[in-house]
Specification:
alpha+beta, BirA Bifunctional Protein, domain 2, 7-stranded mixed beta sheet, 11 helices, 9 strands, rod-shaped, binds 3,4-dihydroxyphenylalanine
Length: 328
């Protein structure tokens, strides 16, 4: 009897819907029982075997059964969605009481910090900082600075040549000509940056190092101005008690020329060179040498943090080892 079969199928569907553990499962049950080719729909085929007075009753029973199952599926679907949402929320829950994840904090490289200190002190003394190029013209690196054509420093073996007219600058002093060819005095200019020389690398020599150069042209400039500026810089970097010493030295671009040293503990430590700008350079710039004179100095930067922090190997600055860098 199809009517009994209807009851059996409905009971089976009832059970399956109640047991369904997910909305996907419900989707499948909906197709299985109520779909166009579903088991209830299939029962309609058997309607032909019924006496004609029972056909409408069976039709009604079938529709009523479909409606009940549809309602049941909807109710179960609602139950499941509440449950599934709760599970999802549980899985995605954020424990706001957990401690935060620490981010490693960056800090300044000791050379960068030193160069910033240099700038701070020199800007305080009226210097304007200008960057020059690392790849420099031979003209500015040597010719402008009064190097004679056969000077040993110009030997290709001493520097990194780029092409016939360019090299990696061997000194930040190269900025002088670049500035002087288009500026009129008075001025105070400084620059700090990388320099390069063809050196065998060891604990105290590197092919890549840093310098600061400062120069000023004005009326009545003397060695006393130079010494005052350098003493102020040294005190700003190493403390109020540091003293600066000048001793005669030679550089083609200064006359007179001096070696600059500071007293460190009970030794004198050489930091670089300085002097009064050579009249040949002032003349080349078109300045009236009766009226104007200038001073210039150039110091190695790398030594400064080495002294300050007791670093004994210059190579550490450039090999990016965090075990070293994290100490500053
Ligand atoms: N450029 C020189 C060097 O690398 C240092 C120096 C000496 C710079 C005297 C100057 C200066 O500006 O006047 O050894």
């Amino acid at each position: 009897m199809v009517t009994e079969e209807l009851q059996t199928i409905e009971a089976e569907a009832n059970q399956a819907i109640t047991d369904a553990g997910s909305s996907e499962m419900l989707d499948r049950l909906q197709v299985e029982f109520l779909g166009r080719k579903g088991r209830l729909t299939e029962l309609l085929r058997g309607i032909g075997t019924l006496p004609s007075d029972q056909k409408p009753l069976f039709g009604q029973a079938l529709n009523a059964s479909k409606e009940r199952l549809t309602g049941l599926i909807a109710a179960r679907r609602e139950e499941l969605s509440v449950q599934e949402r709760a599970e999802r929320e549980q899985a995605e829950a954020i424990d706001v009481t957990l401690p935060g994840r620490a981010r490693p904090q960056g800090r300044l490289h000791p050379l960068t910090a030193t160069m910033q200190d240099i700038k701070r002190v020199m800007i305080g003394q009226g210097f304007e900082f200008v960057d020059g190029p690392d790849i420099e013209d031979y003209l500015y690196n040597f010719d402008w600075l009064n190097f004679p054509p056969d000077h040993p420093a110009m030997d290709e073996q001493m520097s990194f040549s780029v092409d016939d007219t360019h090299l990696l600058r061997t000194q930040t002093t190269a900025l002088q000509g670049r500035i002087m060819q288009h500026r009129q005095p008075p001025f105070r200019i400084a620059t700090v940056g990388r320099c390069f020389r063809y050196e065998a690398v060891d604990a105290t020599h590197h092919h890549t190092f840093h310098q600061v150069d400062g120069f000023s042209v004005d009326e009545g400039i003397s060695l006393a101005d130079l010494k005052g500026v350098l003493a102020e810089l040294a005190r700003g970097l190493f403390g109020p008690d540091v003293t600066v010493r000048f001793r005669p030295d030679f550089f083609p671009f200064v006359e007179p020329g001096v070696e600059v040293a500071i007293r460190w503990g009970n030794r004198w430590l050489e930091l670089g060179g300085a002097g009064l700008i050579h009249p040949n350079i002032l003349r080349r710039a078109g300045y009236d040498t009766e009226r104007y004179s200038g001073f210039a100095f150039g110091l190695g930067v790398d030594r400064m943090p080495m002294l300050r922090y007791g670093i004994d190997d210059l190579r550490l600055f450039l090999n990016n080892d965090l075990r070293f860098l994290q100490q500053f």
